[in-house]
Amino acid sequence: MTEPRPTIETVAARAGVGRGTASRVVNGSSQVSPGARAAVLKAIDELGYVPNRAARNLVTRRTDCVALVISEPGERLFTEPYFAGIVRGISSAMAETQLQLWLSMVQSSTERDRVDRFLTREHVDGVMMLSQHADDPLPGKVLASGLPLVLCGRPLVGPDIPFVDADNASGGRLAAQYLLDQGRGRIASIAGPQDMSAGVARLQGFREVAGDDLVEYGDFSEESGARAMAALLEREPAVDAVFAASDPMAFGAMRVLKAAGRRIPEDVAVIGFDGSPGGRHSDPPLTSVFQPAEEMGREMTRLLLAQLAGNQPPETQVIVGTRLELRGSA
Length: 330
What we know:
alpha/beta, 434 Repressor (Amino-terminal Domain), Rossmann fold, 6-stranded mixed beta sheet, 16% strand, elongated, HTH_LacI, Peripla_BP_I, Lambda_DNA-bd_dom_sf
């Protein structure tokens, strides 16, 4: 005869706790002491307990699934370290729960409509959104549906929505001030898109220190940084420093500067924004404003889990600090 499948009662008995405590651990509740949680998880592992999700979901009306929607093409998710860092942070925080992550990249209106139809209580318990633009209707639609929602990035317009963001303006100021302190006289900026809060805030911080006469715009991608750098050299051949609002744009700028015969940093200093690992291996290594992407992902998850548990976190707007990491390009 086969052994009977272990039940929640079996788990509770093995762990030496009540059934309710064991159930709260299985359901991912935070209302359990660390010791009890450890005992229950150990019992689950020893017994090979598998919750009956289908039966439980009929009672709780929960799907045990949350969505992460990234409003960028899929290739950027896999090539730009910022996105990978956010996803790693979310995944590490969710590993401590029973929740599953549903990931979607949204680029076209057709994809947006498809995702909009999916984001209902029948499919997911909550939503996190990354890289949203000012004209994106999805945050408002999710909010209207009543689903818990957390954004990565301060919303530029619309209602108050819980969000996690880097101190982008401070990062722009740090970069500009450092370049001024190094005696650079013609400092330019390759700004990010102005329909995104990060693009607006990084440029605002830069302008507060360095002024605003030498600015070109990109979309955070490497190719857009290359195009902007070429335009800056045409406008002002004497430019001697560049702050790019993302590391990929800084890499594109460095490529154009080298092709134009400019030495980095002797002729032109370059600072990026992200602090991505690739910057340590560029030629020269890229000075960059570091933003803790993994921490941001973990904080997003924390805010969403609090909503799912019916708790109101003490803060719904989390700003994480930035710092300047000095390397060879500046």
